[in-house]
Every structure is written in structure tokens, then in C-alpha cells.
Automatic annotation (TrEMBL):
It comes from Microbacterium marinum. Keywords: Transferase. The keyword Transferase applies. It comes from the Bacteria. GO terms for molecular function: transferase activity. Residues 3-135 form the Glycosyltransferase 2-like domain. This is Glycosyltransferase involved in cell wall biosynthesis. Pfam families: Glycos_transf_2. Gene3D superfamilies: Spore Coat Polysaccharide Biosynthesis Protein SpsA, Chain A.
């Protein structure tokens, strides 16, 4: 029997009463209310540990599954028994449900564990967090062992690959992923938390996994440098000098490479817009290639 496990993170609105009504009406619904705010990582971890099924779907409160998502993702896992999780393309929408873009990946259906682990150097390789996990993969990986509320999903994907599971991707749209805008341009404190989450991914997940296999650390260092350089763009949107300094310090903990130091110097001197134009040009080129390959049914 399927179940819907809902974790209420100590909400202060009408969420608890609404969930209580649903729980009384539908035997599949099981609600757990936290006594105090726990944050994303601890809530997702609790839900995953307490779900009883062999296949577990993570779904954040502002996202929506396609009507056939469960069927398609479970079929993908049945087709690839060594996959620890299945994921697919998603439609990105804004706060008002307006279409923003289609998010999809340019890759084949299955990545075995070692290839998946190497791919983590390029970031969290899913379109969005609408994912179906195998329970035994979560158990082997230790569920969400990161305490950070950013990049905890990236951390989990590394751990799943590290313990020997691949992952399967399907090109079908499996749901709608909502993106919220920040009227202030950037939430500086949250950006620092995001960087701290990435540091933990590399320090406690990717780094140890690569060392265990005696893989070279050059790629790890380059990946950290690339991420830090990309996230440095947030500095241009922060007015407070103290907040800028805190973010710069976090970026340098992620990577203190020459590339990162030069990028930060360019941002401080107000010429970051030139870097952004170059990145935008490169991104458009990559997107054009991906679109052409899809039209030709190569990917």
C-alpha cells in the first residue's frame, strides 16, 4: 500500500489543521509535526527514515508531480536494478505558475556508480529534486548525513554513488519545480549557507570518496575552483560591505585558487559584468548544441 508522509516543520499558520483534516480523510496520509523548526536537511532525513516503502519519492511543499511520474520513475528503477535513484526532466515555473523553462539533462539513461561519482565534480546532476529513491540505497548511504540546509541533496547523491549505486534518468517530464525570486537581488546570508554546504560536500563526501579510490585530487580542486568562481557573481548584488566580506571569505574556503582570487578581484573592481557576458555567451552555445542534439534524437 502506498503512503504519503508529510513533515510539518513547526508551522505557525493553518498548516497543522489542514494536514489533520487530510490525515483523517485518507488512510494513506501520515503527518509528523516537529516540535521546533528543524530545517530542510533534518526534515527530509526524518521523512526518508520513517517512510515504509521500498521506493521513496522526495517532494518539497512547493513542487508538483506529474500524474504519471510515480509510474515512470518506478519503471526506470525496475529496468536498472543497480540504480539507487531515478529522476527526469521538469518544467520550471515561477511563483505565479508561469512557465519559465524546461529543465533536462544531456545524458544517457543510466550512469553506473563510478561514472556517477566522477560526474559529481560537475555539480548536482539532476534537473530538480523530484526524485524516486530505493530504500536500500538510502540506508547504505546513511540517509541525509549532512546537517547543512543547502546542498544536502548534492551530498546524498555523492554518498549513494560512493556506496555503489548508479542512477537512471528519463527524458520525460516528471513534474513542476517552482523557483522563487529574491526582490533584493540576493539573500547574502543564504548564499553563505549555500557555500558552506558545498564545502561540506567536498570535504566530507567527494574528497573522501575520491581518496578511497586513489583517484587524483586535481579534478576535485578544479571543481571547487569553478564553483567558487561561479558563485562569486553574487558579490555584485550585495550592497553591504560587511556582507560582501563574509561571502568572499566563504568562497575562499571553498577554493583559494588563483582563478578564484582573480575573479574576486575583478568583482571588487566593478568589472564582473564582463565575466558575466562571457559566461552567458558560453552558456547559450552549450544550450544550442544540446537543443540540436535533441532534435536529431542523438540524446
Amino acid at each position: 500500500m502506498s503512503e504519503i508522509l508529510v513533515v510539518d516543520d513547526a508551522s505557525t499558520d493553518e498548516t497543522a489543521s489542514v494536514l489533520g483534516e487530510w490525515e483523517s480523510k485518507d488512510a494513506r496520509v501520515r503527518v509528523h509535526r516537529q516540535s521546533s523548526n528543524q530545517g530542510i536537511a533534518r526534515n527530509v532525513d526524518w521523512a526518508m527514515r520513517n517512510a515504509t516503502g521500498d521506493l521513496i519519492v522526495r517532494l518539497d511543499s512547493d513542487d508538483e508531480l506529474d500524474a504519471r511520474a510515480i509510474e515512470r520513475l518506478s519503471d526506470a528503477l525496475m529496468a536498472y536494478p543497480a540504480a539507487g535513484y531515478a529522476h527526469g526532466a521538469i518544467v520550471e515555473v515561477d511563483a505565479d505558475d508561469n512557465f519559465r523553462r524546461l529543465r533536462s539533462l544531456a545524458r544517457g539513461p543510466y550512469h553506473e556508480s563510478e561514472a556517477a561519482l566522477r560526474a559529481t565534480l560537475r555539480g548536482y546532476r539532476v534537473a530538480a529534486n523530484l526524485i524516486m529513491f530505493r530504500r536500500n540505497a538510502l540506508q547504505r548511504a546513511g540517509y541525509i548525513s549532512s546537517n547543512r540546509n543547502f546542498a544536502e541533496d548534492y551530498y546524498l547523491s555523492v554518498r549513494i554513488a560512493d556506496v555503489g549505486f548508479g542512477n537512471v534518468y528519463i527524458p520525460d517530464v516528471v513534474g513542476r519545480y517552482r523557483v522563487w525570486t529574491d526582490d533584493g537581488g540576493v539573500r547574502a546570508s543564504r548564499k553563505v549557507e549555500e557555500i558552506e554546504g558545498l564545502i561540506e560536500v567536498f570535504d566530507n563526501a567527494i574528497g573522501p570518496a575520491f581518496r578511497k579510490r586513489e583517484w587524483g585530487q586535481g579534478g576535485v580542486a578544479r571543481a571547487r575552483s569553478r564553483l567558487a568562481s561561479n558563485h562569486a557573481a553574487a558579490i555584485d548584488r550585495i550592497d553591504d560591505s560587511g556582507e560582501r566580506e563574509v561571502l568572499q571569505e566563504a568562497l575562499l574556503r571553498l577554493s583559494s585558487s588563483a582563478r578564484v582570487r582573480l575573479t574576486l578581484a575583478a568583482r571588487r573592481r566593478g568589472v564582473g559584468h564582463a565575466l558575466d557576458r562571457l559566461k552567458s555567451f558560453n552558456r547559450r552555445g552549450r544550450d544550442s548544441v544540446k537543443s540540436a542534439l535533441r532534435r536529431a534524437r542523438i540524446i
